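Q: I have three molecules that I believe assemble together. Could you output structure tokens for the complex as a whole instead of separate predictions?
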Amino acid sequence: MPSLLIFIPLFGIVILNLPFGKAMRNAAFWFALAVFIVQIVLAITHQPIFWGNEIEQMDAFFRVNFSVDQLSFVMLLCIGLVSLTSLLVMRDTIFDINERFKFINLLMLASMGMSGIVMVTDIFTMYIFLEITAIASFILIAFEKDVYALEGAFKYMVLSALASVLILAATAILLLGAGSASFTAIADAIHRTDNNLIAVAMGLFVCGLLIKGGMVPFHGWLPDAYGAASPAVSVLLAGIVTKAAGIYTLIRALNSILGFDANIKALLLALGTISILVGAFAAIGQKDFKRMLAYSSISQTGYIVLGFGCATPLAIAGAVFHLFNHSIFKSLLFVNSAAVETRLGSTDMDRAGGLAQKMPITGFTSVIGALSAAGIPPLSGFWSKIIIVVALWQAGHTWYAATAIMASIITLAYLLAMQRKVFFGKLALGLEDIEEARLGIRAASVMLAAIIIGFGVLFPSAYAIFIAPIGEMFIK
Amino acid sequence: MSGENWQVFMTFGFFIILLSVCGLYCLLVTRNLIRAIIGLELLFKAVTLLIIVVGYVTGRNALTQAIVITVIVIEVVVAAVAGGIALRVFRHTNGLDARELKKLRG
Amino acid sequence: MTINHISIDTALLVVMMIAALWTVMGRSLLKAAIGLAVTSAIITILMFRLDSPLAAVFELSVCAGLMTVVFVSTISLTRPLAHKEIVELSRERHKRFGYLPLLLILVAVVLTFVKIRNNIAAPPAVGASIDVRQVMWNMRPLDMFGQIIIIIIGALGVVVLFEERKKDEW
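A: Yes, here they are, computed for all three components at once.
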């Protein structure tokens, strides 16, 4: 019955938008909360009654064809967690009831789109869900009426539409040799025919996905969008949207359609390394908290792609685990930036200072997030990075492994510099009567920090349950 | 694929590439936001035509028509939303010039 | 399709390119929007000729019709330019857009040298006579749900983006 993950929110949105007055508008928040929590619980427990094949009537009734595997479970968990976080942050940053209502609708639509992306088995349906996520995201970015937000939204719109065109063109060319648009038919067509046109199509397809994921040659929109969007949207975008739309689709395409071609592996290794370095060096010079986090996000995405490029089962397991960790710690850091933004009115790091004295929870959780991002044991970020580095070393990519370790030190440097500027040191002038962030933001940051510590400490069992099966999935 | 169909595909492919060069050039060179959207639309048109041609030469018109109808719906929604963003920009800066947006921070 | 058919198609494609060039190089935004509609209309004819009538109808009504309405209304909601500005802008534009025809000819020449082997073969179509409606409703219903979601998002987006609003106070 995985189709219910799409249809319940869809029908919910339709009913909520019927003109029943204010009661519906207030109910929207609780409905969205319930949907996200149910999604998280189902993804953690792997509830066989829901996911299993026993009850197919639901899917058969709608005649849809979803498939869910271990990788989808991890992604569904991330989507649920980050959407929940975004909802909690929204509660403390948007107060007008009508604005709230529209925001919740768009948030649910975006999250629905992402859930669709991770469950489909058809290349064109995947494109539709990509487009749903993208359109909902750029409306969400433009939600903040700031001119920088509009610039970010427009850039994202242009690049995302360009990516759509590339993906569609690739789909069209692949359809020349395939009977239908399903993953299996297209994979079959690729393996059967040896033609330059097919190779071109594969290149276009990978390029489109890399644009959606904000990898380095195409990353121009990302800092603008992340930096200028309203806090709740930044959390959603950085935590999951680009990962589900670009990185998940990339690994799914590599695994079920294109196959791990030697050229593509080399391309991914190179792009991953460049992204890591460009993101890390650009992050050092940033004065704005959120822009720094955005560049850091590019750098962390590079690690994930590096893992995919290595393409051994261990590396892929590590990359997927890093994807999960990244969505947790980057959401946490963006929640902290939201706390700072709501209290200070800006995220300029030069204006802040010594905030940990006044905002102890925000200060503490941001240390956890930063250390996890930099890969300090025993937090969960350490484990995923070490798996990727070990896998690269085993596969003989010594230089890539060394670069990854070096970039990790740079990450630690700029994140600690951020900590010193914003949260520690002397309290900046004029901030004497700053208070701790509101309840929703506090709850979100404590929840995410607890996940980071929990996964770090209980790593061996978490690895066995969630991560190892993914690596095995890719052994052919 | 039969030779005749292949010739049709190559003829259309030739012009589809030219059309997308047109759209891409418009997108890259222009400084007007609405013109950028028009460039994107030209690109979408090129790809729509490509899908239809593929359907014709492989004899799967039904599948490709279904795909094209969905693409057209998506295309118009993207255009409407993009137009909305351009309008917003206009209200902020009183102009549609992308140069006014290029105040990049960092 | 006989050779005669191909030459008709080629003529239509050439007209389409002229319309596209006019769209890109035209002086005013309004003309560009109309040029886009003309391009779209020619693509509609081509779609009819390629045995895709339903897609052609959609292209005509949605792309040539609705899209033009969207563009024209967006353009008319923005500030009309003074005559002097138009002249100045178009002079500047000619500098930047003048290279497009040259570029197109160059690409065309390069493309004539590209040869692709004709060895792609699709597996035989099972039930080639399936109707579009059947494909859409019975074989790809998820696409239909996707379209519904997209339309809801579009409606929400128009509501969010076209309204005036004060910034929230924290």
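A: One point stands out. Residues 232 and 441 of chain A are 10 Å apart (CA to CA).
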